[in-house]
Each structure stands twice: as C-alpha cells, then as structure tokens.
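Long-time lurker. I teach an intro course on protein structure, and each term I like to show students one example going from raw sequence to a predicted 3D structure in token notation. This year I'd like something fresh instead of my usual example. Would anyone be willing to generate the tokens for the chain below so I can use it in lecture? Attribution to the forum is fine with me.
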Amino acid sequence: MAQKVFEEIPVDASPQYCLDVITNFEDYPSWASDIKEVEVLRRDSEGRGNLVSFRAAAIGRSISYTLEYFYADDPLRCAWQLTEGELLKILSGKYEFEPEGDGGKTLVKYGLAVDLEVPLMSFVKRRLESRLLNAALTDFRNRVESQADQIAG
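-- Reply from a regular --
Happy to contribute to a lecture. Here you go:
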C-alpha cells in the first residue's frame, strides 16, 4: 500500500520563482540532498521538462527512476508520476504554489504517494518518507530563499 504524505510550508519568494526553481531539474543535484544526477529526456511545447530521469541515494543504495511531469492550466502547479524505476512501484506527487500576502511570499503545498517493490519495516518507511519530505520542502525552501536573496541583493 502506498504511503501518502501532504505538507505545507511558507516560502519567502514569489509563486512563479518557486515554480521556476522546481522545474529547473538539471539544478537539483546542487540543492536536493539525495539527488545525484538528473537528465531531462523530453520537454513540452513550452520547454518544460516533462520526462525526467533521476539517480538518487535511497535506502543505502543508488536508484534510478523516471518521472513524467504534468503542468496544470493553472501555471502554479505541477504533478508527476513514475514511468519506470528501481525499487519503486508508485511515486507520484504534486506541488502547488499559492500566493500569500502581498505576493512576495508563497504557501507551498506538497503531496506525495510512494510504494516500494520490496517490503520494509515501518520505521524504515518513516525514515524514507522523512528524507523525501526534507528534500522536497526543506532543501527546496533553502534553495529558493537563498537564490531569491542573491537576486534581490
């Protein structure tokens, strides 16, 4: 059964800037702690990556997986689903970037469903979930806010 998580965090940057960072896939290895390599295999008509291959550290080893990305009519959302991958049965999720206040801040909404091909003890699954959330939210916020500070400064 897939583990599902949903989290929200405030980020001190505009929604568009958040979306720009999350769709700059080639830059992930510089800020997402477990991502080692990324290759955009296909782009949509607007130049956004919509088939992306990753190599990441997971469960004491390196795994590879490919995600297909979907962009909503609302330009401040993106979602993905697994097309192939080692150890993974399900890996799907979404980001939504909602303006907060006067537009200089964003509420980031993140959802993820993951299921592995191999059974794991519940504490190992919780640890994996925690690492995924850390990269998806904490590492992401740190990257966005540090880059936004550099641009503003």
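Some talking points for your students: Residues 3-152 form a domain with the Alpha-D-Glucose-1,6-Bisphosphate; Chain A, domain 4 fold (CATH 3.30.530.20). Residues 122-152 form the longest helix (31 residues).
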